[in-house]
Amino acid sequence: MQYKDKARSLAVAALLVIGITVTPPVEADHPLIVTLDGQQLKSRFEVTDGEVYAPLLPLAKELGYTVNWNKQSDRIDIVSDSDRAGNGRGDEITKQQVTDWIVEQGKEDNYYVEGLSYELIDLDGDGEAEVVAAIDGGVHLGHYFMFDRDAKGNYRLIFESPWKVETLKPGAPVRVGDKLLYETVERTGGTGLDVEIVHLWYMEEGRVVEAWKGITKEMNAMIPGSYSLTVAGYHIQDDVLYFWRTLNLLEDDAETIQGAPATTMNTFAFDGVSFQAK
């Protein structure tokens, strides 16, 4: 309800500022015909208690604006064409633009851009969406990128790593100290080897800092007679990361467990920058 009230207020303000002409007053709650420079707008306008209301998002889009609502900061940003010029923002960002940024700013000479996907995610809660992109280059091949928008409106590459990821969206953030940690899972390996690696990272002063990484799955089926499966997990409590691993020796069918699994535990304390072994 609070968001709806804000949207209505902004819509009313927009009508006053841009000088839209409205047909003569009608009875409350009846739709209005509204024109801009002689052209009828498609958005729905209503008069309620003597005031004109319109839904903010459809109206803004119809007028060529972009609306971004940041629930965490309880903030609505209306972006004009001048702010979107050059690089674009929100839905205005295209795959070709992200491709160009990677080619121009990336570390490598060649990328398999046909496998590119991207999303806009506000990672630091400032109301500005970062661009998270990934290239799927094959079974265990890929790249992971993050772009941040600077004061001039240009997107710059702040992180690149040869990670193949299953999803662009990082895991739900966890607060440790004054940092907001995100989880990204990398998939790697080779013939007879399948590995999943968890990366915990945070953003600070426009850069990405990795706080910890650990292997959470490793299927080793490279040499008959020495197959194994290691599975692991972690939990963060009071700025301490608890990491446990269970090793299972396997028969050559890569399924049947030999003997009893062996579990080990390690702990890591957060020193304000990263997790260090205790």
Can you offer a commentary on this structure?
The chain is mostly beta strands. The chain folds into 3 domains: 2-63, no CATH class; 89-165; 170-278. The protein has 4 helices and 20 strands. It starts with a helix and ends with a strand. The model is unreliable at 1-28 and 81-91 (pLDDT under 50).
Give structural attributes.
about 280 residues; mainly beta; 3 domains; eight-stranded antiparallel β-sheet; four-stranded antiparallel β-sheet; elongated
Radius of gyration: 26 Å
Major sheet summary line: 8 strands, antiparallel
User: Shape from CA axes?
Assistant: elongated
How are helices and strands ordered from N to C? HEEEEEEHEEHHEEEEEEEEEEEE
Structural class: mainly beta
Oligomeric form of this entry?
single chain
Protein name: Copper amine oxidase-like N-terminal domain-containing protein
Keywords: Signal
Organism: Paenibacillus woosongensis
Layout of SSEs?
Layout: H1 2-18, E1 21-22, E2 31-32, E3 34-36, E4 39-40, E5 45-48, E6 51-53, H2 56-62, E7 66-70, E8 75-79, H3 81-84, H4 95-105, E9 116-121, E10 130-136, E11 142-149, E12 155-161, E13 174-176, E14 179-190, E15 193-204, E16 207-220, E17 228-237, E18 240-250, E19 257-270, E20 275-277
Antiparallel strand pairs: 1-3, 2-5, 3-4, 5-6, 7-8, 9-10, 10-11, 11-12, 13-14, 14-15, 15-16, 16-17, 17-18, 18-19, 19-20
Keywords: Signal
Protein name: Copper amine oxidase-like N-terminal domain-containing protein
Signal peptide: 1-28
